[in-house]
Amino acid sequence: MKKILFLIPFLLFFIIPSDVFADSQLSCSNAYDFGGACSITSSSLYVPDSSGIYSREFSNNDYTSPYLSKNDSRNYPIYLYSVANGYGSMMGYDVTYWNYKFTTDKKYKLVIEYTVPTKDSNSYFLDKDIYYKYITLNTVTGINGRIPEVDVWKYGETSASLLYFNFGITREEVNNTYYSGYKYLLTLEIQPRVNLYGLQFGFKPIEDSCSSTSPTCNVDNVISVGSSTAGIINYEHAYPILEYGYTDGFNCSRLVNFYEVDEFALTTKIVGSLPGGDDPDDNPGSDNTEVLDKFDEAENTRKGIWQTIKDLPVQFLNMLKSLFIPDDFSFLDNFKESLENKLGFIAEVPLSVLDFLLNLVTSDWEEFNSITFPSIDIFGVKFWSDMTIDLTEAKNIFGPFKYLTDISCVIICVNTLRRWYDNFANGGGN
Amino acid sequence: MILEGLFNLISGVINLIPFELPSLPDKFMTVLNFVFTGITDSLGLIDFFIDLKFWLKCAAAMTIIYNIKHIWNGIVWLLNLIPTVNIGYWK
Q: Looking only at Cα atoms, what is the longest distance across chain B?
């Protein structure tokens, strides 16, 4: 009996658990009375979800002063301040809506959804949707070693290229003078799919934040540009010490209450041009692959040590799998080419047979509806005219017949298995 | 990686052959392809009477089961390529 050796690679299948970001959203549909509250009527509504994130969505309103009553929000265990919604333009995108996500550790996430605008002068580098934009205020260093508490983080209006936002930090009164923070580390994280080619981000104070008559309200008007690599912009802004004279009163027009002490604008600026012009099709280098790769890398880093440890077994198994199962079987083509080139006629027939057998597995045979017999002429005399036999009715007859052949196939298989088992149980080889 | 290395190794050895054997005549390959095409079409005709795909799958399964010993030994041989791994063959 011929013995056929089938050497097949075994397959390992691993299901890699995917991190699912729970994105439950609550709606506030009844009130947009920011003068009083959008109303925080029950703190139970604002309990963060299992992932520690609370999100709240507002829609269909265009309030220009979109923040809740701070006095109300400060009473809640999580910091709930600004809820903004509006329509405008942000970095070339039409903003459909945005909302904030708040976490218990005072890190805020602003979720912005965009619609891709019609092509304009800036749209070539924004050929994909931006889903998320995280802006976090990492550190605030106060003067004299004092670390002020970050209280407010809200957005104001937007314009074509500016996203205004301000944040508040507490002040401290020392000898009739209020002190606040002066050094901010802002992190802007863009996720994902935004090509940052030629884009710079900067933070600058709003110019009209303070009146010119204010003797002590120093504002730095210089646009400072942060780096824009890997979709994450870290910008450390060394701000002049804000020193508000107590006796002179507050001349800063934006200094309307205890929280607002500073205001910045996020600016975008194109500093380069794409090699092929504005058309993304002409810019093969303008795709988002690199940015996405870098973002993934940054995302992996952000997972932390615990996540890495959790991933170790899966990674190990994947490595083991890749040891035996190649990702790319193109080497078989090289192997076949070597055989054909060097061994010539010796290899051609077996390779052809192998190709035939492999193609047989995936073959999809044409269904016969009729059989045509060609005409036969012998010495100019028509011996047989062409004839077509319709098999439609025959198919109806042989359709059930297939069940019988299937049953016979199963019987043959069972019989074969039984013989194999007998041979195996008796210790015989095969 | 192991499979790829193995095939690349064999390819490398074959490429070391200093000459190239001639190919089969084109007519021979034409005839061979004609035969294969005929077989394929004939199988299509057979499919009219039996569920050919089912039969082929059964045949493949039977072949694998009948040669499970060789398949297992092949896998063991692959595993034994890893240093410190030494699994006994099915004798």
A: 54
